[in-house]
Specification:
The complex is a heterotrimer of chains A (394), B (296) and C (644).
Chain A lengths: L1 H20 L13 E8 L6 H20 L7 E8 L4 H14 L4 E3 L4 H6 L1 H6 L4 E3 L19 E3 L4 H15 L4 E7 L3 H16 L3 E8 L7 H9 L4 E4 L3 H13 L5 E4 L7 H6 L7 E4 L9 H11 L7 H19 L4 H9 L4 E3 L2 E3 L1 E2 L4 E2 L4 E7 L4 E8 L4
Parallel strand pairs in A: 1-2, 1-3, 3-4, 4-5, 6-7, 6-8, 8-9, 9-10
Antiparallel strand pairs in A: 10-15, 11-12, 13-14, 15-16
Chain B lengths: L1 H29 L6 H18 L5 H29 L4 H22 L15 E4 L2 E4 H23 L1 H11 L1 H6 L4 H26 L9 H12 L4 H19 L2 E2 L2 E2 L4 H15 L14
Antiparallel strand pairs in B: 1-2, 3-4
Helix pairs in contact in B: 1-5, 1-8, 1-9, 1-10, 2-3, 2-4, 2-8, 3-4, 3-8, 5-6, 5-8, 9-10, 9-11, 10-11
Chain C lengths: L1 H26 L8 H18 L3 H25 L4 H20 L10 E2 L7 H19 L2 H11 L1 H6 L4 H27 L1 E2 L6 H14 L5 H16 L6 H16 L15 H27 L3 H51 L29 E12 L2 E12 L3 E5 L6 H8 L7 E6 L2 E2 L5 H7 L1 E3 L12 H8 L8 H6 L5 H19 L14 H14 L4 E5 L7 H17 L3 E5 L3 H7 L2 E6 L2 E6 L1 H6 L1 H8 L1 H7 L1
Parallel strand pairs in C: 5-10, 5-11, 8-9, 9-10
Antiparallel strand pairs in C: 1-2, 3-4, 3-6, 6-7, 11-12
Helix pairs in contact in C: 1-5, 1-8, 1-9, 1-10, 2-3, 2-4, 2-8, 3-8, 6-8, 6-16, 9-10, 9-11, 10-12, 12-13, 16-18, 16-19, 18-19, 23-24
The chains are: A alpha/beta (394), B mainly alpha (296), C alpha/beta (644).
């Protein structure tokens, strides 16, 4: 036994020496030039991954374009992306890593309101600006006392607007007189979007017949839907992510509910159609942008050529706009210092971005004058079609 | 609305009941709570997905049968790897339960790590067909699931009563040692037992996948099914069915109730787990379960 | 370095939680799958106080701890009182864990399921490690006190623990409270480190992580679980890309350990000189693994040869492990003489302390036969009053009648034999007297008082002790500790003093208990085996230990159940001498169940014979040997007919 052992050791040693003597591939030593590091916290896996992957792709495109144009402040931009799985705890870890280890000057993302809220303390105490892509809940940038969250920004519209759009569409275009709501009590986005819809719908003269909630992760809503059914609503508003919306739609139809389904930008992933099947035929939802929008056709063409598939809107657009905004702000700030960058971001006016001109309200860090589109789900054609761009009457 | 709620409750309850039967079957013979059952159910759903959507286009019925078989085999392997050593060593049932938990955690996260957390839908069977009875609607899928489960359990019942294997299982439920003394190969017996329990689990997984979706943490819902098994009495098959249905009903009723103006739908799980705890404290044998005294 | 700090703080936090669970699950033997609920209570309480009310950190943490303890009593009392079997109990804790989580999700103040961000970051490397060290010291102190021993006894064998007068419920609650408090502390520290909490953090996964730490580390050790949990936190960090595989790894580890090495890493041992190499090897593996990725990358970059890189990296890991292992071995050998000197120094120091603080704790009142005792039993005047009287005792098990209207009297200081064929109900009689089972009919009078409705611990306090047919020792405790455990009523310091190992009271009381235990061991002749693990004793000596333990209860009545079982003739003779001695010296009343006829006949002047739960004969050994009914019972009717 001992001899075999010694032989084995000798053999291993010989192999090691031979390996050391073999001609080695010379790896091109990458010239480590200095870059400006930008963090990207995004859901690359999990139910929100369809948006997240698209977002990451678009951001890559945007940064390459910016670098091709000379970069910012004489340096190239570098994106460091980590998967947050749309999970709040994971996002906190990711934020810490980006800030403390990778030393990013700013972070693009997250895409979810709850997640952006979760990392608020982390990036604000470190004075690193965060530009959320599709976080629409107002509390993301404005605290309960009305003061602004200093280092958190967003590039999309906010839910009071989205809720109002949905309500007015229901009242005016769908001619609905009654509506019911089913929302996720464990999600900032869902809970508040439901609230804004209810407010706007009631204000516009409609009647809310039921306002039901479920726990995050729930799969069976038939008890709540049964209750909703008795009110015979014209419209059923489902301000949730695509998974719950799909299940709820299926179950609602199973129970014989004939209401028109209406949702928010959480529906906008293509797998909504796969998951819901015929139940979602003809449903409507509010979105930040639509594929048919003439203003963004160039972007879509470029994306399709590069990545061989349609971008999953609206995230890639938002990330692209965020990158443009950040680059511009860095230039105006003249440095990567947190405070200076913050000031520059706040004072952005009429900056040309993909979705129009970006003007920021310094008191709320929210973009002004953002439009919303209404899209309709066409299951048979497996796509979302553009219905209209909505302008609020307020 | 009340009757519709009852129907909804029975529909959810029948899923619970099917899963609970798997638990009780194993418990009746081996006297431990097999927490890995949830993972087997999940894998059953994934097998169906692989067959029906991802790799092939197998139609529903054959896919269902194949998934049941696959899940049964996995359950058999599970027993061999994680439980047989402990069983032979007469380890306390707590150890078996811990081993089961280890398997459950591994398998569920293996799915996350390999296939990923993406959700998948199984192709809709019976499309959107529903049956209308006046104001009430019942989905055809539910009817099919109910009938098929009932048939399978009836077949199981016959197996237990008429076949040699079935009799051996029932005997083992009373006294494992005696059965082995009488010449029954315990390893084979337990293997068959797990195969049956696993198949039932696989079936439940496929039905859940069609009804809802396929995703890695499907197994969590079996915690609820477990509560159903406890209500009915662990170790009793009729108990599992009654308990599962009862739990589904109770949950549906709680979900539509309010207490002083606040809807109780989000508190539903407090009720379910509360029932579990109260039962364990006051009547761990549930409605139909056996009382197993520790030898002093 | 911030990254390293993050890992270390996480290790400390989880270690504190695991420490608590080690006491509850590891030592007391109660499996909890819902301890994350206590972490949640601690986390939420402390966070609400610091976030909304600006309460200072340590005050908030303390209140979190207190609330966790209170919640644990609320949950623990009904559950423990129900005396569920271990897996049912575990499931009940799981149910509680989930229920607490749902309740928190509906709690609006903290935004329910959406979570509470913006908690001030008060946890630092300094204060978490300070608290960890404090927790370790307190736990170690606790386990060395009477309170700790009671809990360990319960964990080893709850039935035996009750039989030596340790009530289960209050002690289990104490253990639960300690573990919940530590979990609450960990939760509070966690919240103020991650600055964001939501109910879903405190999931079954978290509970399983901590429980897995205890199982894999070793149930019966503090070092083991802390080490295991540290590994659980550190190792996945070393393989960052494999984060999702971490839980797969835990699950598999759990299965492997429970199947093939249920003792876990450290079994029943704490860190000492002998297992230093083990700890070093573990550190070595971890250190090696941390070098795996960097080495791999470095080799790839400089040589670009993948297989070679894997090999080198693996070799580095192996080398570091072996190196550390050798280092540990060397260190442990080198420390041997130092250890000797340290131990003798420590013993001398505690002696000095003990004597310098005077005579606290000498001479408690050892209850003697004439002394009054705590349960208000009537004093016996005449020495011939029966000390025990059994009237019409009845017990059924299902349809089987085990004891059928048995009546007898035992006089003080009498040595009564109880014999009968197998299944005649002898052990059941003992079980009824010592209240293991409730009676179905009849009365038991001890020193004139009706003790029929009393519980097992009350019976012990009254002065009845017993041994078991199948020996029930506390196998992982030493011989000395087994006896010490039975002296728990004489450990007269408070819990707080115990936690602090208060020098004024604790060392003296402990020394007294140790001395008394040695004395009892010397009565049975086991004084030289004092420091052996009870499970390593040969069978005959285990029996003697059981007797010593029973004597420690200061009984007036001793029930010996087949003490000579499995003994060879020489051992049996020794046993007879021992019993004679203790009967005489301690002036005990004894009932002896035995099958060894020579033992019974030589010891007992009066013998009762049972058959089918009924008394069929009573008399002197000579009378019994000739009694036809007795012979018939033992030989069977047909054989008797032949013998006659």
């Amino acid at each position: 036994m001992k001899r075999i052992g010694t032989m084995l050791v000798v053999a291993l040693l010989v192999w090691a020496v031979l390996g050391a003597c073999k001609p080695a591939e010379k790896k091109a030593a990458a010239a480590k030039e200095e870059t400006i590091k930008i963090g990207h916290t995004v859901a690359l896996t999990g139910p929100s991954a369809t948006w997240g992957q698209s977002e990451a792709n678009a951001l890559k495109m945007a940064i390459e374009k910016i670098n091709a144009g000379g970069g910012v402040l004489g340096k190239k931009l570098e994106v460091i992306a980590y998967d947050n799985r749309a999970d709040r705890v994971e996002a906190v870890n990711v934020a810490k890593r980006l800030i403390e280890q990778d030393k990013v000057v700013a972070i693009i993302g997250p895409a979810q309101s709850g997640v952006t809220n979760a990392i608020r303390e982390v990036n604000n105490s470190a004075k690193v600006p965060v530009i959320a892509t599709t976080a629409t809940n107002p509390k993301v940038t404005v605290k309960d006392d009305g003061s602004v969250v200093p280092f958190t920004f967003r590039v999309c519209f906010i839910d009071p607007f989205q809720g109002t759009v949905a309500a007015q569409f229901a009242l005016k275009d769908l001619k609905a007189k009654t509506a019911a709501v089913l929302y996720d009590v464990g999600d900032d986005y869902s809970q508040f979007l439901a609230k804004y819809f209810v407010e706007a719908f009631t204000k516009g003269g409609g009647k809310i017949t039921a306002n039901e909630a479920f726990r995050s992760g729930e799969l069976d809503f038939r008890a709540q839907l049964g209750k909703i059914k008795t009110g015979k609503p014209d419209v059923l508003f489902l301000p949730t992510m695509q998974k719950e919306a799909a299940l709820a739609a299926k179950q609602a139809r199973d129970l014989g509910i004939t209401a028109t389904f209406l949702g928010g930008d959480g529906w906008a992933s293509p797998d909504l159609i796969d998951l819901a099947g015929p139940a979602m035929e003809g449903a409507y939802f509010v979105n930040i942008a639509a594929l048919e929008d003439p203003a963004i056709q160039d972007f879509i063409k470029e994306y399709k050529e590069r990545f061989k598939e349609d971008p999953v809107l609206p995230n890639p657009l938002m990330a692209y706009d965020a990158a443009l905004w950040l680059a511009d702000a860095l230039k105006r700030a003249g440095s990567t210092d947190g405070e200076k960058l913050k000031a520059a971001l706040e004072n952005t006016k009429d900056l040309p971005v993909l979705t129009g001109k970006l003007t920021i309200d310094p008191a709320t860090h929210n973009p002004l004058n953002k439009p919303a589109t209404i899209q309709q789900v066409k299951v048979k054609d497996k796509k979302f079609i553009y219905v209209k761009t909505f302008v609020t009457t307020d | 609305m009340f009757i519709q709620t009852i129907i909804t409750g029975l529909s959810i309850g029948s899923v619970y009941a099917l899963m609970a039967v798997g638990y009780s079957l194993v418990f009746s013979v081996l006297n431990f709570s097999n927490f890995a059952h949830g993972a087997i159910i999940t894998l059953g759903a994934y097998i169906a997905w692989a067959l029906m959507v991802h790799y092939l286009q197998v139609p529903f019925f054959p896919a269902l049968l194949l998934s049941m078989g696959g899940a049964g085999i996995l359950a058999f392997l599970n027993e061999r790897i994680a439980y047989s050593t402990l069983r032979r060593r007469r380890a306390p049932s707590l150890y078996l339960m811990i081993s089961a938990m280890g398997v459950a955690i591994s398998l569920q996260n293996l799915l996350y790590a390999t296939i990923g957390a993406k959700l998948y839908a199984l192709p809709p069977v019976f499309a959107m067909d529903v049956v209308h009875i006046g104001e009430l609607t019942i989905s055809k899928m539910d009817i099919f699931a109910f009938v098929f489960s009932a048939l399978t359990i009836a077949v199981l019942h016959q197996i237990l009563i008429r076949t040699k294997v079935g009799v051996a299982i029932r005997a083992a439920a009373h006294d494992m040692e005696m059965v082995s003394v009488l010449g029954v190969n315990l390893d084979v017996l337990v293997g068959v037992l797990f195969f049956i329990a696993g198949s039932l689990g696989g079936m439940a997984g496929v039905f859940m996948g069609v009804k809802y979706m396929v995703y890695p943490s499907m197994g969590w819902i079996t915690n609820k099914a477990y509560i159903g098994a406890v209500i009915g009495g662990l170790g009793s098959l009729p108990g599992a069915i009654v308990g599962g249905l009862l739990l589904g009903l109770l949950e549906a009723l709680v979900s539509v109730s309010s207490l002083g103006g606040t809807s109780l739908s989000t508190y539903r799980d407090v009720f379910s787990f509360g029932i579990l705890v109260i039962l364990l404290i006051f009547k761990p044998t549930g409605f139909f379960g056996r009382h197993v005294e520790d030898k002093l | 370095m911030a990254y390293l700090e993050a890992i270390l703080i996480n290790v400390a936090i989880y270690a504190i939680a695991t420490l608590g669970l080690a006491i509850f699950t590891g030592y007391t033997g109660l499996f909890s799958l819902g301890h994350a609920a206590f972490m949640a209570v601690g986390a939420y309480t402390a966070s609400i106080l610091t976030y909304f009310y600006k309460v200072p950190f340590f005050a908030a943490l303390s209140l979190g701890v207190i609330l966790s303890v209170l919640v644990s009593f609320l949950i623990g009392y009904p559950t423990l009182r129900a005396r569920l079997r271990s897996d049912y109990f575990a499931i009940a804790t799981l149910g509680f864990g989930e229920a607490v989580k749902v309740i928190l999700e509906n709690f609006d103040l903290t935004q329910g399921a959406r979570g509470l961000p913006g908690i001030p970051k008060f946890s630092t490397l300094g204060n978490t490690y300070l608290l960890l060290v404090l927790a370790i010291i307190l736990c170690r102190n606790f386990l060395k006190t009477t309170y700790g021993r009671k809990i360990i006894a319960i964990g080893q064998d709850p039935v035996a623990a009750e039989m030596i007068g340790i009530p289960l419920l209050p002690n289990q609650l104490l253990s639960l409270g300690i573990s919940a408090g530590l979990a609450g502390l960990a939760g509070g520290l966690l919240a103020h480190y991650t600055t964001f909490i939501q109910p879903s953090i405190f999931s079954m996964d978290l509970s399983s992580l901590v429980t897995a730490g205890v199982v894999c580390g070793g149930m019966g050790s503090l070092t083991g679980p802390v080490t295991a949990v540290a590994l659980f936190v550190i190792i996945p960090e070393l393989f960052r890309g494999f984060a999702l595989w971490r839980l797969v790894f835990y699950g598999m580890l759990l299965v492997i350990i429970i199947n093939w090495r249920p003792k876990g890493l450290f079994g029943y041992e704490e860190l000492n000189r002998k297992n230093l190499p083990k700890l070093f090897s573990i550190a070595g593996i971890t250190g090696g693994l941390s070098l795996f990725m960097p080495t791999y990358r470095w080799v790839i970059e400089s040589r670009g040869y993948e297989m070679f890189a894997l090999f080198v990296a693996g070799a580095v890991v192996g080398a570091v492990t072996v190196l550390f292992g050798l280092l540990g071995k060397g260190l442990s050998l080198a420390l041997a003489p130092v250890a000797e000197r340290y131990h003798s120094l420590r013993d001398r120091l505690s002696e000095k302390l003990a004597s310098s603080f005077g005579d606290i704790g000498t001479a408690p009142s050892y209850p003697t036969i004439e002394g009054a005792d705590s349960n208000g039993l009537k004093e016996n005047e005449a020495i011939r009053e029966p000390i025990l009287e059994v009237r019409e005792l009845r017990k059924n098990f299902g349809g089987v009648v085990a004891v059928d209207g048995l009546s007898f009297k035992l006089s003080e200081v009498e040595l009564l034999g109880l014999i009968g064929p197998n299944g005649s109900g002898k052990t059941t009689v003992f079980n009824l007297i010592s209240s293991v089972y409730p009676v179905d009919g009849g009365t038991i009078l001890f020193r004139g008082t009706d003790i029929t409705p009393w519980g097992p611990t009350e019976v012990v306090v009254a002065g009845i002790a017993r041994t078991f047919q199948n020996i029930r020792l506390f196998s992982s405790m030493t011989v000395l500790e087994n006896v010490q455990a039975a002296l728990h009523r004489e450990g007269t310091y408070s819990l707080v003093e115990g936690f602090l190992q208060w020098p004024k009271t604790v060392p003296q009381v402990e020394r007294r208990l140790r001395d008394e235990s040695r004395r009892l061991l010397s009565i049975v002749g086991l004084e030289r085996e004092a420091d052996r693990r009870a499970s390593t004793l040969p069978y005959g000596l285990q029996r003697k230990l059981e007797i010593a333990r029973a004597l420690a209860l200061r009984p007036k009545l001793l029930l010996l159940d087949e003490p000579a079982a499995g003994m060879n003739p020489r051992e049996a003779t020794e046993l007879v001498e021992l019993i004679k001695r203790i009967h005489r010296d301690e002036r005990l009343s004894i009932i002896l169940i035995e099958h060894h006829m020579d033992v019974v006949m030589s010891l007992c002047r009066r013998i009762l014979v049972l058959n089918f739960g009924r008394l069929i004969a009573s008399g002197t050994p000579e009378q019994i040997q000739k009694d036809p009914l007795v012979l018939q019972a033992y030989l069977g009717e047909k054989a008797y007919a032949v013998v006659r």
